[in-house]
Design goal:
By secondary structure, this protein is mostly beta strands. It is about 0% helix and about 45% strand. It is extended.
């Protein structure tokens, strides 16, 4: 049983001014503590707390709230929601259901002890005469342990509940507590409150961004300041005066880090303080195929994103410590580019460039590389959708990116890597990723280095999106795609799986994007390759293979008996369908057989008859006067199972 620990005490009010904000502290006892509102020893929690106007003693925009944490647990609270509302109620003795506003919504964890301030996503206007309701709730699927907060004895001011298996923000059976968490509020009490919720959206050009913000009631104009990261808005930056709460910044540098602030102008003599800053990085300006990069062009170099981190001594750099012709290359360095050298600090680092694949039927990607490295220290390369990637302490791959395989390593001298890409990328923008990963063991020099990247269109592209369908016992339909629909001439080769493409297989000349393969062996695995014939002297490379398995022949010889002994002619021709996708399905099992060692059975214990599972025989050609006989039994008389037999005519192969 989970135990609840509550230890508590008294109340005090403290008001200080800090950077134009008023900080109000309600309750200052640091002897006793409670487990709410951060009740992460349970999966779900909901807490409502009442603070009165004579405790707050001022009006204004509440920008932050905080609790004084005595013992923290950093377990994340999912769906962490803060709501605030105004009320005339002086006590809180039941669930508060009147109107409240969501001021924070997301995931949150208590990161440390002491006053933990939570910046509200939407500041809340407090009128100074009403009492204040604060609700905090969350919804987890697991639990860890509590975070304790200091609290003061205060009856009829706190309602809470925490439990497993509920949705925290929907819990209604809240109960009274005798102690209330101490609270700290950061309130902007000025006559011209500062703007909030300054946000930005990168556009696709890389040279402009859309900014917007929310401004309190009194401002009629705004001053926007922006500049490279780190500037002081009171001393420098670019200034723009505006009469609306949104603006598109233009003329920015691509792939560059910026910071922006905004402040309100309420009248000629009344200006707000600066908003909290927003930092953003403009996106790359994608280059297009044909693309060549020897890292000699400063404009192109600027559009490479090097995702490294000062926490690690190893970083991607563009410099002159090594190269394969010219002056520069892209490489890993542990001394800011002076050498192509690395230390054994475990990390995963990224470098990438966005490329628009000008319409073509295929592409050749090549680059020079070298990389030695200790066991599990690798260079990786792949092309995929644009996605944010961050450096890390290990080789954890971001979601939705290809697995980090096909490692390049074990070469101290420059090598050439070439990849042929089919036309499926035609007309799209993709990202060229290079990743360097090393463990924390030995460091065998040198680490990764890249030079002379080229992406060129092919005059005769590889067929792609190859499909096999309408598969029968002796035929299969194969189809594929190309971007160029002129002069469709192809060569198709197929054979039993594993055949040698250079010396085996059956060849077909095809003048369309599809073909039917005939005279195939039943119940057999086949591989198919396709290449395009653009001219006598211009032929594409072979496509990747597509594989399929033909169906079984029909049963025509009688009597036909299936004993599931794994040696019968049609043993592999039986199919199963697990229609309800549970763990119970038809399986060949040893034991419980009518004869021999095997039978086919379905385990249905404790599933309340919820099966919807099918066992399908091979095709059977009936000529008349045949009958069906099979044996069945249940393992336990307490678990009866209904078995139906369906005879389905096949009118189409």
């Amino acid at each position: 049983m989970k135990k609840v620990f509550i230890i508590l005490v008294a109340i005090a009010i403290n008001i200080v001014a800090l950077h134009g904000q008023k900080i109000v502290t309600i309750g200052n006892d640091m002897t006793n503590s409670v487990v709410y509102p951060f009740t992460t020893y349970y999966e779900d929690g909901r807490t409502q707390i009442l603070y009165t106007f004579d405790e707050i003693l001022m009006s204004g925009l509440i920008e932050e709230i905080g609790f004084n944490v005595s013992d923290n647990n950093s377990y994340t609270m999912n769906g962490f929601t803060i709501k605030m509302g105004l009320t005339t109620n002086n006590t809180l003795t039941s669930l508060y259901t009147n109107s409240t506003e969501v001021v924070y919504e997301g995931d949150y964890s208590v990161s440390a002890t002491g006053w933990q301030m939570i910046q509200l996503q939407t500041p809340f206007y407090y009128d100074g005469s009403s009492n204040l309701i604060i609700e905090i709730c969350y919804d987890n699927d697991d639990y860890d342990y509590y975070s304790y907060v200091y609290a003061s004895e205060m009856s009829n001011r706190t309602m809470t509940d925490y439990d497993d298996g509920n949705h925290g923000c929907s819990m209604t059976s809240l109960y009274q507590e005798s102690y209330r968490p101490n609270l700290r509020l950061s309130i902007d009490t000025s006559t011209c409150p500062r703007p909030y919720s300054l946000s930005t959206t990168d556009n696709s050009t890389g040279t402009s961004v859309d900014l917007s913000w929310i401004s309190p009631y009194s401002a009629t104009a705004w001053e926007l300041k922006y500049g490279l990261n780190g500037f002081d808005p009171d001393l420098s930056g670019n200034t723009i005066f505006l009469t609306s709460t949104n603006y598109t910044l233009t003329g920015l540098l691509s792939n560059t880090s910026y910071t922006a602030y905004v402040r309100g102008i309420c009248d000629a003599n009344d200006t707000s303080s600066w908003s909290r800053k927003i930092s953003f990085v403009t996106c790359q300006i994608a280059d297009s195929v044909p693309y060549y990069c020897g890292f000699e062009d400063s404009v192109d170099n600027h559009n490479w994103t090097l995702k490294s981190n000062n926490l690690y001594s190893n970083n991607w750099v563009i410099g002159s410590a090594t190269q394969n012709g010219g002056s520069n290359a892209l490489y890993i360095s542990d001394d800011r580019g002076i050498t192509n050298h690395y230390t054994q600090n475990s990390c995963l680092l990224w470098a990438y460039r966005d490329i628009y694949f000008t319409p073509a039927d295929g592409y050749e990607v090549s680059f020079n590389w070298k990389c030695f490295g200790e066991y599990n220290d690798y260079l990786y390369f792949f092309i995929d959708e644009k996605q944010d990637v961050e450096p890390s302490y290990n080789s954890v791959n971001p979601n939705d990116l290809p697995d980090l395989n096909n490692q390049l390593y074990n070469n101290r001298e420059w090598q050439t890597h070439t990849t042929i890409i089919d036309g499926s990328y035609s007309g799209t923008t993709k990202r060229l990723y290079f990743a360097w990963s090393n463990n924390d063991l030995n460091n065998f020099q040198p680490p990764a280095a890249i030079d002379n990247i080229s992406v060129i269109p092919l005059s005769c592209g590889i067929p792609y999106n190859i499909y096999s369908e309408n598969i029968t016992d002796h035929t299969a339909d194969i189809s594929w795609m190309t971007n160029d629909t002129i002069n469709l001439q192809f060569q198709v080769v197929y054979g039993l799986s594993g055949f040698d493409l250079n010396s085996g297989g059956t060849y077909l000349a095809v003048s369309s994007n599809e073909v039917q393969l005939t005279n195939l062996a039943s119940l057999s695995n086949y591989d198919v390759y396709i290449r395009r014939i653009c001219s006598i002297s211009d032929t594409s490379q072979w496509s990747q293979s597509v594989s399929f398995t033909t169906l079984c022949d029909a049963v025509t010889d009688f009597p036909f008996t299936e004993t599931f002994e794994q040696t019968t002619s049609f043993y592999n021709c039986w199919k199963t369908i697990n229609n309800n996708f549970d763990d119970d399905t038809w399986e060949i099992r040893s034991g419980n057989s009518h004869s021999g060692n095997y039978s086919i059975a379905i385990y249905t214990d404790y599933n309340n008859g919820y099966n919807d599972d099918y066992l399908i025989s091979p095709k059977i050609t009936l000529s008349g006067n045949q009958f069906l006989q099979f044996y069945k039994k249940v393992r336990s008389s307490g678990e009866l199972c209904l078995v139906k037999m369906l005879l389905i005519p096949i009118t189409k192969k």
